């Protein structure tokens, strides 16, 4: 989704802005642009397509000229209002070219504002909602940039993360947020602003996260922070401990492959220091729940989107099996618009890799508003969901750049298992069972390592099925959400139509679609329900579908029921989702590679969906 970068300092402005945009490419976008301010003149360059097209447009002579500027803003746009085109790409300017704006989010009342401004003689060049902002700022301007931006923002409904420069103020940048993240990187005699810390970590580890309705004036290297009503506010400087190198490919062909291979370490980080071997429980102090709070929880609602939703579905089994707590999993988008029933004792868990997904954030706000205890399971430190919930668990998985989520999913599942163990141990789960589970959880990184070691075999299976047009993934119990996640991975990155189904539901409709051209991948690991899934595999074979089984190493019997097998080490039903999903991630990856797809930035997708 859209990305923002803004910079003031001594570095080459073009190189810095372009570097920032490249680091945001993973978010998904369809056009890009920059605006540079030099001696009271703003110059913009925009292009449709990748950041490289923008770079190609900047000739050496142009670059030399533009590099005289010391201040600039830049943007990658993911189209919402108007097609991807140069006029629709950001930055947008007013017609006197005094104010240039980059904006993430949606201005809901833009049509009315535009009509009003056209009535006052303003001329518009794009179909975007954003373009009203520079015109509105121009309309509100009385000599003070911060005040003009604040006045303009007060007139709009919707969400925004913005950065603004003005030819009237050659040393200033104004930035503000409501519902769309903005982070200010505080360097030595330089300031870099971005919508995401990935664009900042190679410059500084000191950052300020803006809260909703914060507005900041950066004037040389002074930062004046206020709220939109002009009241000064203070925000802590946070330290980010992400290693800048961790956001690079490190020799892998794609971020996705790197992130799949990183999972043993990522999961080890997610569980480190969070298990108590002698008490047989999870610690997870960030949840901030006393023993009394833990037993008071009588219902859990998990709200999430996409892959995080599937992790939540695995969590539902954990909480019910290990802690006896009735658990529901909700698409965050539905949760926010239904009238969810929240009683004392209802515990809401928001799962989000980015911590910024608009629907999940809105669900969190709705739950807080209704008085619920809300915790987050997030990866991006300092992102909005953990800040607003004030309690939860960070994944410590490191930056996830590939749009299709991999390591975040396995770490989410590991965290959910530790959390269910903690809740379970506060109730009827015995110390002995807890100790056994702790030992199993500690084995997870090794289980994943073993699956990764078979990547070449999985690649062979992928090559065999890479030309299929449709795919079904079926599973039961703990492997049902894994089947759905496997299908999502495949459709996201390879554009193959894939459906994840409960194995028993297949015969209630989708079986009509099966024939020799539609492979079925069956999760047939050695856990309760395996006998039943073998029956379901037979049903598929009887319709001539090729069957690929994910099965437990050493299960020779399975060969009778499957055309191809992907092996996963023996483990319990509690840990089996993790190594099994890794096998499916690799299968999707190699199918997408065989089909020549853009794996890290699939068409139409965004890493972090910050609009509804
Ligand atoms: C987007 C991404 C998915 C992700 C989902 C939820 O759709 O493409 O990979 O699972 O958002 O994101 P979150 O950051 O909330 O986990």
Description of the molecule:
The structure is a single chain. With 612 residues, the protein is α/β, with parallel strands linked by helices. The protein has 3 domains: 3-240, 4-Layer Sandwich (Glutamine Phosphoribosylpyrophosphate, subunit 1, domain 1); 250-451, 3-Layer(aba) Sandwich (Rossmann fold); 454-597, Rossmann fold (3-Layer(aba) Sandwich). Helices cover 35% and strands 23% of the residues. It has 19 helices and 26 strands. The protein has an 8-stranded antiparallel sheet with strand order 3-2-4-1-10-9-11-14, with helices on one face. A 6-stranded antiparallel sheet has the order 5-6-7-8-12-13, with helices on one face. Helix 5 (132-140) crosses helix 6. The structure holds 6-O-phosphono-alpha-D-glucopyranose.
Level-2 CATH architecture of the largest domain: 4-Layer Sandwich
Mean pLDDT: 94
- What is the first-to-last residue Cα distance? 12 Å
Beta-strand percentage? 15-25%
Instruction: Report low-confidence residues grouped into runs of 5 or more.
Output: none
Lateral strand order in the biggest sheet: 3-2-4-1-10-9-11-14
State the helicity in percent bands.
25-40%
Per CATH, what is the topology of the largest domain? Glutamine Phosphoribosylpyrophosphate, subunit 1, domain 1
Q: What is the CATH C level class of the largest domain, in words?
A: Alpha Beta
């Amino acid at each position: 989704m859209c990305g923002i970068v803004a910079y003031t300092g001594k570095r080459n402005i073009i190189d810095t802005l372009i570097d920032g945009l490249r680091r945001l490419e993973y978010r998904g976008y369809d056009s890009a642009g920059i605006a540079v301010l030099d001696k009271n003149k703003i110059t913009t360059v925009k292009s449709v397509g990748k950041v490289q097209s923008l770079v190609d447009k900047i000739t050496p002579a142009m670059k030399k000229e533009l590099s005289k500027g010391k201040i600039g803003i830049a943007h990658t746009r993911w189209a919402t209002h108007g097609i991807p085109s140069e006029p629709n790409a950001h930055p947008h300017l007013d017609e006197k070219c005094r104010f240039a704006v980059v904006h993430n989010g949606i201005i809901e009342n833009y049509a009315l504002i535009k009509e009003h401004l056209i009535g006052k003689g303003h001329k518009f060049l794009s179909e975007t909602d954003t373009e009203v902002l520079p015109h509105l700022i121009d309309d509100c301007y009385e000599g003070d940039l911060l005040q003009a931006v604040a006045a303009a923002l007060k007139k709009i409904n919707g969400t925004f993360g913005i950065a603004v420069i003005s030819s009237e103020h050659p040393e200033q940048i104004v930035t503000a947020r409501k519902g769309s993240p903005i982070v200010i990187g505080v360097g030595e005699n330089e300031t870099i602003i971005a919508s995401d810390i990935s664009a900042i970590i190679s410059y500084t580890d000191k950052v300020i996260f803006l809260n909703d309705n914060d507005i900041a004036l950066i004037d040389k290297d002074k930062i004046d922070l206020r709220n939109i009503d002009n009241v000064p506010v203070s925000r802590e400087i946070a330290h980010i401990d992400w290693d800048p190198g961790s956001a690079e490919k490190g020799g892998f062909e794609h971020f996705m492959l790197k992130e799949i291979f990183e999972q043993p370490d990522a999961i080890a980080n997610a569980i480190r220091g969070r298990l108590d071997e002698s008490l047989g429980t999870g610690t997870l102090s960030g949840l901030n729940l006393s023993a009394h709070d833990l037993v008071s929880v009588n219902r859990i609602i998990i709200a999430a989107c996409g892959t995080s939703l599937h992790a939540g579905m695995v969590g539902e089994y954990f909480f019910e099996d290990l802690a006896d707590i009735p658990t529901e999993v909700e698409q965050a988008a539905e949760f926010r618009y239904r009238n969810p029933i929240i009683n004392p004792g209802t515990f809401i868990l928001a799962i989000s890799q980015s911590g910024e997904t608009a629907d999940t954030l809105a669900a969190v706000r709705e739950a807080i508003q209704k008085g619920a205890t809300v915790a987050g399971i997030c990866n991006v430190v300092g992102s909005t969901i953990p800040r607003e919930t004030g309690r939860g668990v960070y994944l410590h998985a490191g930056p996830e750049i590939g749009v299709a989520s991999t390591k975040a999913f396995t770490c989410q599942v590991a965290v959910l298992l530790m959390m269910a163990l903690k809740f379970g141990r506060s109730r009827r789960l015995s110390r002995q069972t807890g100790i056994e589970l702790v030992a199993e959880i500690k084995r997870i990184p090794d289980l994943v390592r073993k699956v990764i070691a078979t990547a070449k075999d999985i690649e062979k299976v992928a090559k065999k099925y890479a030309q299929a047009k449709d795919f079904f993934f079926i599973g039961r119990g703990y492997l049902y959400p894994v089947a759905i996640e496997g299908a999502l991975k495949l459709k996201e990155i390879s554009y193959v139509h894939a459906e994840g189904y409960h194995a028993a539901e297949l015969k209630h409709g989708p079986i009509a679609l099966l024939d020799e051209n539609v492979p079925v991948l069956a999760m047939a690991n050695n856990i309760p329900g395996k006998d039943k899934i073998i029956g379901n595999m037979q049903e598929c074979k009887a319709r001539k579908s090729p069957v690929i089984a994910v099965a437990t190493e050493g299960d020779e019997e399975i060969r009778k029921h499957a055309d191809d097998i992907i092996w996963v080490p023996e483990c319990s039903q509690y840990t089996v989702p993790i190594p099994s999903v890794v096998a499916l991630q690799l299968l999707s990856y190699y199918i997408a590679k065989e089909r020549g797809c853009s794996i890290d930035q699939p068409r139409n997708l965004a890493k972090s969906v910050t609009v509804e």
